[in-house]
Amino acid sequence: xxxxxxxxxxxxxxxxxxxxxxxxxxxxxxxxxxxxxxxxxxxxxxxxxxxxxxxxxxxxxxxxxxxxxxxxxxxxxxxxxxxxxxxxxxxxxxxxxxxxxxxxxxxxxxxxxxxxxxxxxxxxxxxxxxxxxxxxxxxxxxxxxxxxxxxxxxxxxxxxxxxxxxxxxxxxxxxxxxxxxxxxxxxxxxxxxxxxxxxxxxxxxxxxxxxxxxxxxxxxxxxxxxxxxxxxxxxxxxxxxxxxxxxxxxxxxxxxxxxxxxxxxxxxxxxxxxxxxxxxxxxxxxxxxxxxxxxxxxxxxxxxxxxxxxxxxxxxxxxxxxxxxxxxxxxxxxxxxxxxx
Length: 341
Description:
The chain is of the alpha/beta class. About 30% of the residues lie in helices and about 25% in strands. The chain folds into 2 domains: about 1-205, Rossmann fold, CATH 3.40.50.620; about 210-340, 3-Layer(aba) Sandwich (Rossmann fold). The protein is built from 9 helices and 17 strands. The model has no long low-confidence stretch (mean pLDDT about 90).
């Protein structure tokens, strides 16, 4: 049996598994079905590995339900604090005894710190910030084929590595976590023999409020303003949209061009170089529909576009299309909510 290994990430404050890990597990499960169909003589399974001191039992069950066949906990009290070299050493020690054909890392701060250290030591390649992945058969050999944006996200490149294990980092929100499998599987604890002490030491932790960041991962409704809202050489309509978002308990967001022109802060940006979201409702006001932006919101459940141009690119991705001046729609909404208040 061959395996696809997911490098699992947990929240060190509550020991719960991060959502991106479930997303990668579910994608890995789909890749397993794909690989097993393409090459019936090469059967794959999904293994997720956590470097931690503890895992909540219910969280392990969720990993199984997301598609994991095996959950591994590389366990040590030293892992209560994240140190990239310590985590990488422990993971590599386990991997050398339990190799895999494919490793999927989350493209998070931790994942991006671990993945290069691991792949360098394994003398293999790494495809970063992937937005798609599949298996293909070439010359009767099965290859893992991840795809990532390139040339400023204008093109999508599918990259085949010559070396095994095939490794990739994948951003959160790109794939959907599906809890449709059974809630049991194989569990294994591994205690590392040794690891190098990290030369970097934690001085203090800063939470999201201190970092002044916006978390779109669990957003239910996102109201996004594009450059089409720019008027009168001011940020007037972005402030109006932000007010509507506050009134409706929604998340305010913008596109990259809005940030580039200093019309809104970067923390509100949705897209390839910003945040991603799987909102239940995503409403795009005056958004053109550049591929970089689409990568950040395409997995939203319901997408509504408001644009004066009936041929706007954004409409290709919308469930509902409203051809109208987005600025006037915002004025009408604001007037409605002001009356209701």
